[in-house]
Amino acid sequence: MDASDLRRLALGLPETEEKSHFGKADFRVKNRIFATLPGDDTGVVKLTPEEQQMVVASEPGVFTPVKGGWGLKGWSQVRLAEADQTTLESALRMAWRNAAPAGLRKRVEGDAG
């Protein structure tokens, strides 16, 4: 995977917009950031600490916690070249759910069911 893949997959999620955060691309749902693209080979996703522990344990070559306090909150770095599409899609969906308002999540998950 690469930056264009992350962009394509993130923008495919409901009501996602691409904006900029400190000069880097970010992806938002209802103006809440759920992923960023700090470089061509790296993405960052907003996971819960529990989700972060799970993905780091299962895919240590792909995921690492962001350094500092943001990493303690679940923000996780993704090595895009090491990720396959299924893994990246799953991480982006988790991150999207963590940022999306409850009403939107309920409406989207109800549509999917």
From TrEMBL:
The keyword Transmembrane does not apply. Keywords: DNA-binding. The keyword Manganese does not apply. It comes from the Bacteria. One of its GO terms (molecular function) is DNA binding. This is MmcQ/YjbR family DNA-binding protein. InterPro entries: YjbR-like_sf (IPR038056), YjbR/MT2646/Rv2570-like (IPR058532). Pfam families: YjbR.
